[in-house]
Design a protein that fits this description.
Protein name: Tripartite tricarboxylate transporter TctB family protein
Radius of gyration: 21 Å
Keywords: Membrane, Transmembrane, Transmembrane helix
Number of strands: 0
InterPro entries: DUF1468
Strand content: under 5%
Order of helices and strands: HHHHHH
Number of helices: 6
Pfam families: TctB (PF07331)
Largest sheet: none
Length: 162
């Protein structure tokens, strides 16, 4: 068989690989059964579903004809760097780095940091739009996680709350 869509082919392989890794990792936990699920049940099912979706995408890449072969382009290094940096900054701002002496800044500061850094992935940075998005995400996260779910997450930096 000949590959008709290279993007779909490699996406399918990626989905299958990640799905198998999740399913395999879930087997180290007690899986349980449908009526009495263990901690490994959800990751196992998620991995299986992801691998099945990958198989469907892979199959369609071999069967469905696409104009031009849908070639894979070059790596987008700028978005890759800023998205990874935004996630790392979120973790550091939310929990801090006690081994280095960086204090936890809380949920609100972490969301603002995540949004500002992730918005730099695009070549065009719009400060006002980014701050509006960060505010909406911060308020929504506060309502969802602190008010509704009552999670015990530090919301503000300790130098503000005391």
């Amino acid at each position: 068989m000949q590959i008709k869509s290279h993007k779909d082919f490699f996406s399918g392989l990626l989905f299958i690989g990640i799905g198998i890794a999740f399913a395999w990792g879930a087997t180290t936990y007690n899986v349980g059964e449908g009526a009495r699920m263990g901690p490994g049940y959800f990751p196992l099912m998620l991995g299986i579903v992801l691998a099945l979706i990958g198989a469907v995408v892979l199959f369609t890449s071999l069967v469905v004809e696409v104009e031009g072969g849908d070639a894979v382009g070059q790596w987008a290094w700028r978005p890759l760097f800023f998205i990874i940096a935004a996630n790392l900054a979120f973790g550091v701002l939310l929990g801090g780095l006690p081994s280095v002496g960086v204090p936890a800044m809380g949920l609100i500061a972490a969301i603002y940091g995540l949004t500002v850094i992730a918005s730099m992935a695009d070549g065009r940075f719009h400060g006002r739009h980014t701050l509006i998005l960060a505010t909406v995400l911060a308020v929504g996260s506060y309502l969802a996680f602190i008010v509704l779910l009552k999670l015990q997450i530090q919301v503000w930096p300790s130098f503000i709350t005391g």
